[in-house]
Amino acid sequence: QRFVDKNGRCNVQHGNLGGESSRYLSDFFTTLVDLKWRWNLLIFLLTYTVAWLVMASMWWGIAYLRGDLHQAHGDSYSPCVANVYNFPSAFLFFIETEATIGYGHRYITERCPEGIVLFLFQSLLGSVVDAFLIGCMFIKMSQPKKRAETLMFSRAAVISQRDAKLCLMFRVGNLRNSHMVSAQIRCKLIKSRQTPEGEFLPLDQCELDVGFGTGADQLFLVSPLTICHEINSESPFFCLSQRSLRSEQFEIVVILEGIVETTGMTCQARTSYTEDEVLWGHRFLPVMSLEDGFFRVDYSQFHATFEVPTPPYSVKE
């Protein structure tokens, strides 16, 4: 069972929240943004529909209480809203006012203080509803989640020697020409373990060093890069050998973060590798080639690996 899917979705569900579920309502705006698109569109349509019907009913109610619906709107009689005779006409007047289309045939007269008050209330309420819902839709459309789909990770990780050192490696790439500013990569080893005191820690998280001390974790991601974790005495894979890899159970979670150059928003892409997706004694095929005046990236070879001579022993051995 994966903790993080290959597409980056965390395989965790929260249950039995009890009274803590009220915390979602205290941050209703974020809750609304986190909802799926179909629920956002439903709430968007229902909110506007209910608000329009309620406000149109209030305009119709004022005309009904004043008796404007049964009076001829001539020069001798001044109604609250001219040319409002029934609910459809009251609804059209509300829409004209809310959308600032222009009154035209229907307009408020100066002898209707309750209509002026309702007009002010309608303007304030409409501004709040528009700001809330349109702001929510704008933030949801501009979320950088789709940008993360154009960040690629290799399907498998490999273990082989580099610079006479045994290393765990995987590949990352950016499909767009726009850059990821301040791109940084982190790796977590997810593995259950038992402490010397007998405490069992399910899904214990351990950090994998991918160049924190040397700055190699800060990426200039304009072409595919191979991320390298050196297996040494401080690595959790210090005792890992080709034989023990077959019986191990672990998951490597990779987190790539950066700022989208075009929008300035922070983007995060995730993936994971289980023990079955770690290939011992393999290396990635080259994808860069020099053309006439530029470098070409062949993404058809992005996931491809080939076998290389690698000792089957662990670093400890």
From TrEMBL:
SUPFAM superfamilies documented for this protein: E set domains (SSF81296), Voltage-gated potassium channels (SSF81324)
Topology term for the membrane: Multi-pass membrane protein
Domain Inward rectifier potassium channel C-terminal intervals: 151-316
Entries under Gene3D superfamilies matching the protein: 1.10.287.70, G protein-activated inward rectifier potassium channel 1
Any one GO molecular-function label of the UniProt entry: G-protein activated inward rectifier potassium channel activity
Site (Role in the control of polyamine-mediated channel gating and in the blocking by intracellular magnesium): 130
Biological process per Gene Ontology, one example term: potassium ion import across plasma membrane
Catalysed reactions listed for this entry: K(+)(in) = K(+)(out)
GO cellular component assignments: monoatomic ion channel complex; plasma membrane
Pfam families found in the cross-reference section: IRK (PF01007), IRK_C (PF17655)
Cross-referenced InterPro entries: Ig_E-set (IPR014756), IRK_C (IPR041647), K_chnl_inward-rec_Kir (IPR016449), K_chnl_inward-rec_Kir3.1 (IPR003274), K_chnl_inward-rec_Kir_cyto (IPR013518), Kir_TM (IPR040445)
Bilayer-spanning residue ranges: 41-65, 115-139
Residue ranges of domain Potassium channel inwardly rectifying transmembrane in the record: 4-144
Keyword terms: Ion channel, Ion transport, Membrane, Potassium, Potassium transport, Transmembrane, Transmembrane helix, Transport, Voltage-gated channel
Highest taxon listed in the record's lineage: Eukaryota
Subcellular location: Membrane
Keyword Cell wall biogenesis/degradation belongs to the record: no
Family stated for the protein in its record: Belongs to the inward rectifier-type potassium channel (TC 1.A.2.1) family. KCNJ3 subfamily.
Name of the featured protein: G protein-activated inward rectifier potassium channel 1
Source species: Pomatorhinus ruficollis
